[in-house]
Amino acid sequence: MKTNSKKLVTSAMLIAIAVVLSLFTPFNLPFGGGITLASCLPIILIAFMYGTKFGLFSAFIFSLLQMVTGMNTVASFFLPGDSQMVLWRAVCVCLLDYVAAYTVLGFGGIFKNKLKNHILEITIGSVFALLLRYVVHIISGAVFFGAWAEWFFTQEGFYKIGESILTTFSDASLSLVYSVFYNGLYMMPEIIITAVIAPVIYKILSSSKTIN
C-alpha cells in the first residue's frame, strides 16, 4: 500500500511540474504548438520509474490537463467564427492533438533495462516518446489543417522553400508536407531540448536515490 501511495504522490507531483513547464512557451506558432522547457520529461520519468502501464495512465491525465490549460485554443474549434469546425472534426482534433499526442508519452520508459545503461535508455526513450507525439500531430495536421498549406508556404520567410514545395507537391501530399514542416518547427527543438536535459535530470535524481 505504501508503494502505491508513493507512486501516486510522486506521479501527481511530476504531472503538476509538467503542467507548469508547459505554460512557459518561449516560442509559439499561430495555429497551435510551441516550444516548452522540456514539459514532457516529467511524464517520461513516470513511465521510466513505474512502467509503461502506469506511464500511459499518467500521460492520459496529463493530456486532459493540457486540454484544460489550452482551453482557448480548444474552444476556438467549437465557437462561431473563422476557426469553427464541424463538430466531429473538432472532437477528432481534440482526441488526436491532445489525448493521443500526450498519452503516447507513456511509452517513454519502454527501453528501461534493455540497453544496460539507464542514461542512454531514458534519452532514447525521451526521443522515442516525443517522436510518437510528433507523428500524431503530423496526422492531425495533414488531415484537419492541410487547407492552410498553400497560405502557409506563401508567407514571408517561407517564400523560397515554399515556392519549391508548392510546385512539387499538391493535394494530400502537400497537406502532409505542410504538417511535417509546421509541427517540426516546434517538435524538433522540443525533442532536442528534452534529449539534452533528460540525462542531466536522471543523474541528479539517481544520485539522490529518487529514481533507479
What count of structural domains?
A: 1
Spatial strand sequence of the major β-sheet: 1-2
- CATH architecture assignment name: Orthogonal Bundle
CATH class: Mainly Alpha
Low-confidence stretches: none
Let me know the average pLDDT: 90
Strand count, sense and closure of the main sheet? 2 strands, antiparallel
User: How many beta strands in the DSSP annotation?
Assistant: 2
Question: Which short descriptors sum up this protein?
Answer:
212 residues; mainly alpha; Arp2/3 complex 21 kDa subunit ARPC3; two-stranded antiparallel sheet; 9 helices; 2 strands; 72% helix; 2% strand
Question: Could you characterize what this model shows?
Answer:
It is built from nine helices and two strands; from the N terminus they run αββαααααααα. The protein has 212 residues and is mostly helical. Strand 1 and strand 2 form a beta hairpin.
Structure described in brief:
The protein has 212 residues and is an all-alpha fold. It contains 9 helices and 2 strands, in the order αββαααααααα. Helix 1 packs antiparallel against helix 2 (41-50).
Write the layout of secondary structure elements.
Elements: H1 2-22, E1 27-28, E2 34-35, H2 41-50, H3 52-69, H4 71-78, H5 87-103, H6 118-144, H7 149-152, H8 159-168, H9 171-207
Antiparallel strand pairs: 1-2
Helix pairs in contact: 1-2, 1-3, 2-3, 2-6, 3-5, 5-6, 6-9
